[in-house]
Design goal:
By secondary structure, the protein is α/β, with parallel strands linked by helices. The protein has 30 helices and 9 strands.
Length: about 725
Amino acid sequence: MKVYQVIYTSVQHSLSDTELGLSNQGGLRVYSCSQGLSRENLDEIIRVASYRLPKDNTIEYSKNVGDPSVPGLFPKTFRTLRLADGKLAAVQSVYSGVDYLGHEGNFFSHALIFEGAEDDFLPELYYGCDKFKTYLTPEETEREIVHYLPAADDAKPKEGMEDKVCAFIGEHKRELSYILNNAISLIASKKAIKNICISTSSEEETAMYLIALKYLLPRDMEENMGISTYNVYLPSEKQDKIIFHGTISGKNNITKQAIETRESCMFMDMEKLDMSAYEISPLLVKWEPKELKSEYALLGIRSVEGLLDWENTYENVTSPGMGAKLIRLKESGGERAFVKRARQLYSLIGDDEYKDVRFEISKVMYDNIDMFPDEVTSLTDMHMSQIVEKLSAGQSFDLGSIFSSTEHENVQVAEMKRHIGAIMTELARRESRLDDKTKYIFLGLFAQLKHKYGDESWRDFFSGNRIHLTTFVETAASVIVTGYGVKPFSPPSNWNKADMAELIAFFEASTEDRLLRKYCLKYIYTNKDIDWAQYGITLTRHTKTHGEQQEDMRRIKKILKKVGYEPYQRNKYTDVQQDVKADMQDNLSPLLLSRLLNAYYIWARSYGNQAKARDAAQLVRELLLEMKKTQKTCYDFVIPKLALEIIETPGHYHELMINMETMCPSFWNWFLIGYTRCKRDDEKMLTYTRIYQASKTKMQKLPIRKKLRAAFAE
C-alpha cells in the first residue's frame, strides 16, 4: 500500500510544483506533499483541512510561531474520506496559534493518503497515529526551498488501536446500536437528513463513537461515509464527503436553536440519551466486532441494501421465505455474500428443524448451480428427489427448465438420469392417484432428459426395461392420447414428433380399447411424413368395398344437401363445420370433401398470420386439384359455390386457391357475377381484382374473357 502525505498550514515558504499549481509563496497553502498526488487530490484535502476555535475560547496559549505546546491545549480534528479517484485519506487538523506574520487562528493539517488498500482497510484506525505531525520545526519554517515530503509507507495505526475500538464497542453496544440503526436509515432513506452529529463530554469518547460506527459498517457501503471527530458548528450540507460528525459539549458554538432548525442534521447528545432499554443490533449480537469486519471483507458487501439483506438471512432461518431472502441478498449484496450464506444454510438443511425451508434453499442454489461447483452433484440429486416427492404428493409445481448449469450440464443430466428408475417405480405405485396435470409435468421432464441425454428413443431412455416402458405408455396414453388439455394427441410442448410417434406405436400395439386403437391408427395414417417402419408399423392401402363406397356417398350427400348448389342460396359451407369435424374425428379415412372443407376452415382462421395462411391455402389448392381429378361429380357440385365463398372470406393468398388450374372454365361466369354483386365492398372487390390479375394471362381461351377484361378495366 502506498501512503502519501500532505501538509496544509500558513507558512512563509512552500513547495513549488507548476503541474500541481503550487508556487513558493507565503500564506495558507499546501506547505508540501508527496510526489504522485494530483491537483484534484490536493483540492479535496484542502476542502476538509480546516480548524476553528469556539468563539468564546478562554484558553491562553503561546504567541510564538510553531510552539509545539499549543496543539495539545485544544481538541484535535480527525477526518476521513474517500477521494474522487478512489484513494482513502485520513486528515488530522490542530490549532497552532499564530502564523509567521503573528496572526492568530492558524492551524496545521496533516493528511495521509492511502492508495491500493485492502478490502478490510479502515483509515479511521489511524486516529492518534504517531505519523501525524502537529507543527513545523524552526528549521522547516525558515527553509526557503521546500522539498517534497517522502512517502509514509511505514505508517501504521497506533499500537492496540483496533483492540481499543473493539473493547469500546463491547462496552457501548446499546449506544452504538442506536447510532448504527440511525446511520443505516440515513444512508438508505435518501431523505432530508444528510448528516449525523454525535456529542459527548470528551474529545476521546466522541472520536471513539465515530470510529466504532465506521468499524461496524462495511467500508465501501457509501462513498461519502467519512467522519469528522470535532466540529465547532453543525456540519454544512456542502461537505458531501463526510456525513458522520462529532463535537464536544462546552467546546462548540452549537446552540439549541441551531439544532432545532437544522432538519438536515440529526444531533445525538449521548450524555442525555437513555439507552438502558434500547434493543441491541443483531450485528452486535451475532458477531464479535473483528468477526464482523472480516465478514464484510470476505463478502464484499457494497450497499446498505446488501447489509440489511445479509443480516435478514440470519433471522427466522427455519421459517418459509428463506429462498426469497437469499435471492434478495444475491441482488443487493453480490455473489460472494450470496454463495457464502447459502453454503452455510445448505450445511444445515438436513436437520429436521429446517424441513420447511429445505426445498426453497436448495432450489435457489440449484438455480444458480454454477456458483456452487463443489455441490453440483448433491444439489442435482436433492433437487430431483424433491421434484419427485412434490409431484407425487400432488403439489402444484412449475417445473420449467430443469437444467440450470452452463458449465456442468453433463453432470446434471447424468445425475438426473440416475433417478429414472426410482421415478418410474413411484409412478407405478401412485399412477391412479396422480392428476392429469402432474402426469403431464412428468412427461415433460422425461422429454427434457431424453433430449439432453441424447437417447434416440423412449426404449433407449428406459434402458429397455419393460416394466418402466409399460408404466410410461400407460401414464402418457391417459393424458396424451385421450387428451389432457385442449384436444387428443396433445403432448407437452417440449415433445418432438419422434417422441409422439413412438408412444403412439407402443400404445396402438398394446391397447385393448378398439376406439382408442382406431384413433391411433388414424394418427398413423394422417402423419405420412413419419417413418413408421422404424416402429414396426407397415402402412397398407386397400380399395374400399362397395358398402364402404355407398356409405361415403351417403355422408357426402348429407353434407351437400345442407348447403345446396346455387351460389348465394341456402346455407354456406361454414354452416356444416360440425359435420366436417365429426367426419374428421370419427373416421379413419375422412371424406375428401371433409378434408377440403377442414383445410378451408383452417385457412379462414389464419387471417392475420400470412405464414400460416400460405400453408393452409396451399393445402386447399392441393385438395381442390385432387377432387377435380378423382371426384369430378362432387367437384362440379361444390364449385362454384365454395369458390365464391372462399373469395369473399377475408384472408391472404386467395389466388393460390382460386385460379385457372383449380377452377373449371364455367366457374368464371360465376366469378364475374360475384364481382358485380360486391361492387360496394372494397375489400371483396380487391380480392376479386387480385385473383383476376394473377390469372388473366391464362384466360385467353375463355369465352367470357372480354367481359372480364371490360369489368375489371372499369
